[in-house]
Design brief:
By secondary structure, the chain is α/β, with parallel strands linked by helices. Helices cover 32% and strands 18% of the residues. It has nine helices and nine strands. It has helices spanning 3-7, 11-21, 26-38, 46-54, 65-79, 127-133, 139-143, 174-179, 192-198, and strands spanning 84-90, 95-100, 106-110, 117-122, 160-163, 168-173, 187-189, 208-210, 224-226. A five-stranded mixed sheet has the order 4-1-9-5-8. β6, α8 and β7 form a beta-alpha-beta unit.
Length: 242
């Protein structure tokens, strides 16, 4: 590649070209770049970061790139054979709470799907991880609405979502649904520990769940999730030591 060719490339393209020159495949190279972007590395710093991880590659002294590549390779292998699903997310401007159920929780009512956006993801992924690690179209939009302050250990309610009533089965618990996952066509009610966290969420409704506890299966292709207009982050109130 000539200097002129390099100067016309974006930072991402330059980084990919460097990885390819080290012998990594297209898929692994793109996976490494996606992993770094997901971890907050700006596009402008990709090449310098990758070169730093490559270490003294000319003499075989790696500084972390090989481990990252191995992790990306394992993830790609895990995704092989898994189907891509589409999940629809509707911001709070398209729905509201209408009435209450027997337990006093509001019932979601959909007004318009005009502002709904779709995200593609592989089966086996949970909703919180789509926002945390997703790289497909509209994942960046989802991150503006959904977070996961506790990293998915069910110790907060920041990934609180509301399931569209047509996709919710109030007659089954999440454990019962998991036990018959091959037949899962709807999402069940939360477990008791999950409900404890949902009770602390921003305006929980009758079909509320935590995104980190909803794992997508083939039968949930086309699932519609309603996004609350705000969230309660208990992590903000924890007095961490300086």
């Amino acid at each position: 590649m000539s200097k002129d060719d390099s100067s016309t490339q974006s930072p991402t393209q330059q980084t990919e070209a460097f990885l390819l020159s080290l012998g990594y495949s297209n898929a692994i190279s793109k996976g490494i770049i996606d992993a770094l972007i997901q971890n907050g590395i700006p596009h402008s710093s990709l090449l310098s970061m990758v070169k730093g991880l490559a270490g003294r590659y000319e003499v075989g002294e790696d500084a972390g790139l090989e481990a990252l590549a191995a992790s990306v390779k394992k993830e790609l292998e895990n995704e092989q054979g898994k189907e891509k699903l589409k999940v629809w997310f509707l911001p709070s401007t398209g729905w509201s709470s209408d009435g209450e159920d027997d337990d006093g929780f509001g019932i979601p009512a959909i007004h318009s799907m005009d502002r709904a956006f779709a995200v593609e993801v592989h089966e086996g992924t949970n909703l919180a991880d789509i926002a945390r690690f997703g790289t497909s179209e509209n994942c960046d939009v989802l991150r503006e609405y959904l977070e996961c302050a506790c990293n998915g250990i069910m110790a907060c309610s920041t990934c609180h979502v509301v399931v569209h009533p047509e996709w919710f089965d109030s007659s089954k618990t999440s454990d019962e649904v998991a036990a018959s996952v091959d037949e899962q066509t709807k999402i069940g009610t939360p477990s008791e520990p999950e409900q404890d966290m949902i009770d602390l969420a921003f305006e929980p409704l009758s079909t509320s769940r935590l995104g980190c506890q909803i794992t997508l299966t083939k039968a949930l292709d086309g699932l519609v999730i309603l996004l609350p207009k705000s969230s309660n982050n208990l992590m903000d109130d924890i007095p961490f030591d300086d």
